[in-house]
Design goal:
heterodimer, A: 5-stranded parallel sheet, B: 8-stranded mixed sheet, 23 strands, 22% strand, binds flavin-adenine dinucleotide, binds iron/sulfur cluster
């Protein structure tokens, strides 16, 4: 019987691990992915914005497109995939128990890779005082409801936390007609990337309250308002300066926690503080033959790194089985994308995660690392352009995601969204299919970035 | 012409539902009017869920008598109703000599009340019994237990409903008229007629009494806030620990209590407030709670907090007076009023109901039904079953093979059962309290979207019909597409 390598979780980390394991073992192992969702892709399936894949593929993709690249490879490789299947127990001798509509099963694995991702911190975790009305969502839940379920979570929105997910949601909800009243951040500097501050907040004049926090939630049934106060150097609210912002919705973007409940059950040691799984440089845990990759070790900003880490875990799982030398995981490119506030008078290039800070004076362009950035900055000074990422309903009422295949004038985005909300895509439409060509005479086509999942 | 009920119960908390269940054993037409959209929407859903032994209550008081009676009958009751119940026992911790004196007094008081097994233990035995706990000695009460209060009240109500009681939600009683021996009760949009009224309105029992010209009582709301910790009871603390009580605080002091599910509760504080409906949690108290809990159990970590809530005691003792008043059962004409039912009201709910029946019998003749429909056998939680039992259930119904709430491992079948509950309650909190979904460490992060999907696709609900707790607590404003960029 062949050795079995079981991968728990089919997000980008798990998919990359599976592919690497399959390739490296030269068909000497069975590689199995178990994923509880209906499709592979993990959190990427709800990240319909673009900004994925530049490092790995040199191409700007949306989350579903990035996931689809791997899904296709997995379909071709001889990898067993269980979806709609949840792993509920893993023992320390590598017995993996999972559940789905067909029943409860157990696989005795030779090696296991945990790629279970992360979950969000909640209101309870950060203990915000006040009432407990409807209308409070974590950013990921808000994203899922908005992007995958066509649900309107609110009209007057406050966002707590300026991490990237919060910023992306500020823009996304604005696209859907909500009034985003402000983003509230405890720290002096925003938590998200400069490019997201620039294209998600500045583009829409959404106020950013740095060094502020929410001190009270009001409303007995639905949320009615939040009380906001500035904080002192130690982060303590200055009660005398507090003020009230009316709103019907609060989106919490207050951090992610590695999800390791199953790994923990099997005896994998976790970091006390972060809940991340502890591994050596080969991504192996305290249990030999058990590996971890992706957000369940440490939450990463860029999916490209997650994929690279998955590959190493997959390779090493095979190396472990055949007593070969393992690879060390090192970030192959030490790219630090600029975070915080964009510099005054400079343009933050949004074409790639480098996010160069560029100045333009006449024909003098400085700060760009490549020529595309120069073009971008000149254009930005003249008429800024953006790629629009949005959801479209299909004829039968399913939600798919779509984007313009090139940047369009920022000024006409509103108008283009109006059009998007009137049209219906075909239910059979595939990723890359044109839903509408030359939308609003922009020369850009609206193309599908996901398909209907039945 | 509206029908005339023999008896109308006002309030569907633990007490109202226990009364309704007792009444359902008789040939009477009974309705329960509740202002919330579900049972247990008042104090009965917001407490420590401890089945007290009865040593805290003054010798000879009604509270002491009913608490001991409630405690001693609870195991049988819980089994009958299929309600999660654990006889954990409880420790009261002494931090100094004065505390020890207080605890010795409690042992004495408890014995006189008829509480079994109370005894003092020294520091060494305490640390053995509850590793990691602070303190220098303790009192042990082996009879104290914990329950799931939602499951309890729901089970009482469902049993009553199965035996003929009508539950009417979203019916706030606003006024009551007495005319030709009939009470005309204005509640919600309608008028209900009754020959007899039982006032179990908890915090508002004084208001209901006022409506019937009983002006002797005033309820002072006294809030208690809690933190909910993750399911770490197994590792950290499997028995409730309380500090030795301090004089006059009107509560039992901030304590640590495991829940039947394995979470730990920290709280409650005790703070008199003005607004009976203000269930806020406040920054000041939240900080204090954690500090005090750490005194009891120094190893506690803040990162274990997954939520918070508060409950409000309906106290007859004013802030100036402090402490506890006894339960009041006030009878006037054809009405009975239960007033000041604070802790241990949950424990004493069924004994209270029995006293109510005795009182009614003094006014009207009641005939026992010949046939009582027994409580439905509650299905055990899927996650607590063995592998074999799980497999069997999935082969019978594939909805058991779909986990909807990952933290609590709740299956789609259990969600569907919760949605199709016999009382007809539809709200996210109704589903939550019936099956436990959204109660875990991710607080709905994983399952809220799935439950929403089920409600929309399988029950044809509109997003705006999905509420947290009924009324205006809509979770969503609608579909996006109906409501696009154009404002
Ligand atoms: C909201 C959000 C926005 C982001 N935006 C960007 C961006 O713009 N650009 C970028 O480069 N990166 C972005 N990232 C980061 C990047 O997408 C993530 O770091 C990456 O997706 C993590 O991959 P993963 O495989 O570790 O985890 P996930 O994608 O979370 O995958 C984990 C998978 O495991 C499954 N699973 C978990 N437990 C079990 C179990 N017991 N049984 C079966 N299956 C299980 C889950 O269902 C899930 O599918 C974003 C992340 C988030 C959360
Ligand atoms: C912080 C705290 C901790 C506690 N801990 C414990 C414990 O560990 N053990 C224990 O035994 N007891 C405990 N108690 C006490 C216990 O919770 C209560 O005694 C018990 O729940 C009271 O039940 P009830 O049915 O009288 O009141 P409630 O549960 O408040 O029910 C009253 C109902 O009446 C309804 N109502 C009110 N006005 C109207 C109206 N006008 N029209 C229609 N309906 C109306 C309300 O909506 C409510 O549902 C605690 C209490 C608090 C506050
Ligand atoms: S200028 Fe900088 S950020 Fe812009 S595309 Fe070039 S390298 Fe990327």
């Amino acid at each position: 019987m062949k050795n079995k390598i079981v991968i728990v979780g089919g997000g980008p980390a798990g998919m990359a691990a599976a592919l690497a394991a399959k390739e490296h073992c030269k068909d000497k192992c069975n590689v199995i992915i178990i994923e509880r969702e209906h499709t592979l892709g993990g959190i990427l399936n709800q990240c319909i914005h673009d900004g994925f894949g530049l490092l790995k593929f040199g191409q700007m993709m949306t989350g579903p497109e990035y996931a689809n690249k791997y899904e296709k490879l997995i379909e071709k490789a001889d990898i067993k995939v269980y979806t709609d299947t949840m792993v509920i127990d893993v023992t320390n001798d590598k017995k993996v128990t999972f559940i789905n509509k067909n029943g409860l099963s157990t696989i005795k694995a030779s090696s296991i890779i945990f790629a279970t991702g992360c979950r969000e911190r909640t209101r309870g975790n950060i203990a915000i005082p006040g009432t407990r009305p409807a209308g409070i969502f974590t950013a990921g839940v808000a994203q899922n409801l908005t992007n995958n379920k066509n649900i309107c979570i609110g009209k007057k929105v406050i966002i707590l936390g300026s991490g990237d997910i919060g910023l992306i949601m500020a823009r996304r909800l604005t696209y859907e007609g909500a009034d985003v009243i402000g983003v509230i951040e405890l720290q002096k500097q925003p938590g998200g990337l400069q490019r997201n501050i620039s294209q998600c907040l500045y583009d829409f004049d959404i106020p950013l309250y740095l060094q502020h926090t929410i001190v009270e939630i009001k409303g007995k049934e639905r949320l009615q308002a939040v009380t906001v106060a500035p904080v002192d150097e130690l982060g303590n609210p200055i009660e005398n300066n507090k003020f009230t912002l009316e709103c019907d919705t609060l989106v919490l973007s207050v951090g992610l926690i590695p999800e390791n409940e199953i790994a923990k059950k099997s005896g994998v040691l976790l970091d006390d503080k972060t809940n991340g799984a502890l591994t050596d440089e080969y991504l192996q845990t305290n249990i030999s033959g058990v590996f971890v990759c992706g957000n369940s070790i440490k939450v990463m900003d860029l999916v490209d790194y997650v994929s690279e880490q998955g590959e190493v875990a997959g390779y090493n799982a095979v190396a472990y089985l055949f007593n070969e030398k393992m690879y060390e995981f090192k970030k192959q490119r030490s790219l630090e994308m600029p975070k915080g506030l964009p510099e005054n008078g400079k343009f933050t290039c949004i074409l790639c995660p480098n996010g160069c800070s560029i100045t333009v004076e006449g024909n003098n362009v400085n700060g760009n690392k490549c020529n595309r950035g120069k073009q971008f900055a000149i254009q930005e000074k003249k008429t800024p352009k953006r790629v629009l990422t949005i959801t479209i309903l299909t004829q039968k009422g399913y939600t798919i995601s779509a984007k313009t295949d090139r940047p369009i004038d920022k000024e006409i985005i509103k108008e283009v969204i109006k059009i998007c909300k009137k049209i219906r895509a075909s239910d059979n439409c595939k990723i890359g299919d044109v839903i509408l060509d030359n939308i609003a005479n922009t020369n850009a086509n609206l193309i599908a970035t996901s398909k209907v999942h039945l | 012409m509206a029908e005339i009920y023999d008896i109308v119960v006002i309030g569907a908390g633990a007490v109202g539902c226990a009364v309704a269940r007792e009444l359902s054993r008789y040939n009477l037409k009974v309705a329960v009017l509740e202002k919330g959209i579900d049972v247990a929407s008042g104090t009965s859903g917001r407490n420590s869920a401890v089945i007290h032994a009865g040593f805290n209550n003054k010798n000879g008081s009604l509270m002491a008598q009913l608490c001991v009676e409630g405690n001693q009958g609870f195991e049988k009751l819980a089994n009958e109703l299929g309600v999660p119940y654990k006889k954990t026992g409880k420790y009261l911790i002494a931090f100094d000599k004065d505390d020890i004196k207080v605890l010795k007094g409690l042992v004495e008081q408890g014995r006189k009340n008829g509480v079994k097994g109370l005894h003092m233990i020294d520091e060494c035995s305490l640390k053995k019994a509850v590793p990691g706990v602070g303190g220098i000695a303790a009192m042990h009460s082996p009879e104290t237990a914990i329950i799931n209060p939602f499951a309890y009240v729901i089970a009482l109500a469902e049993d009553a409903a199965r035996n003929g009681v009508t539950f009417l939600f979203d019916r706030e009683v606003k006024s009551i008229l007495f005319n030709n021996d009939i009470y005309l009760i204005s509640a919600g949009q309608d008028i209900y007629k009754a020959k007899f009224i039982i006032n179990c309105a908890g915090l508002y029992s004084d208001k209901i009494a006022n409506m019937m010209n009983i002006n002797d009582y005033k309820i002072y709301p006294c809030r208690g806030e809690y933190f909910i910790l993750d399911e770490i009871a197994d590792e950290v603390l499997s028995v409730p620990i309380y500090p030795a009580p301090k004089k006059g605080i009107g509560g039992l002091g901030v304590h640590l209590t495991p829940t039947t599910k394995g979470n730990i509760l920290i709280g409650p504080s005790a703070e008199y407030i003005d607004d009976k409906s203000d269930y806020s949690c406040t920054a000041k108290i939240m900080d204090k709670l954690f500090t005090e809990a750490k005194q009891l159990l120094p190893t506690l970590k803040r990162s274990c907090i997954i939520g918070s809530y508060s409950g409000i005691r309906s106290k007859l003792a004013s802030p100036q007076e402090g402490g506890f008043h006894d339960f009041v059962i006030h009878k006037k004409n054809n009405s009975i009023h239960l007033i000041g039912i604070e802790s241990p009201g949950l424990t004493a709910s069924v004994p209270l109901a029995r006293r109510v029946i005795e009182e009614i019998k003094k006014s009207i003749t009641m005939h026992k039904k010949t046939e009582i429909i027994p409580p439905k056998i509650r299905k055990p939680h899927f996650r607590n079953l063995s592998m074999k039992e799980k497999s069997k259930l999935i082969s019978q119904d594939s909805n058991y093979g779909e986990i909807v709430c990952r933290c609590e491992q709740i299956t789609k079948r259990e969600i569907l059962d919760a949605i199709e509950n016999p009382l007809g309650v539809v709200s996210i909190s109704g589903i939550k309290y019936r099956c436990g979904a959204t109660m875990g460490r991710c607080q709905g992060g994983y399952c809220l979207g799935r439950i929403t999907d089920i409600l929309i696709k399988e029950y044809n609900k509109k997003p705006s019909d999905i509420t947290l707790r009924g009324g205006n607590s809509s979770l969503y404003l609608g579909f996006l597409q109906e409501d696009s960029y154009e404002k």
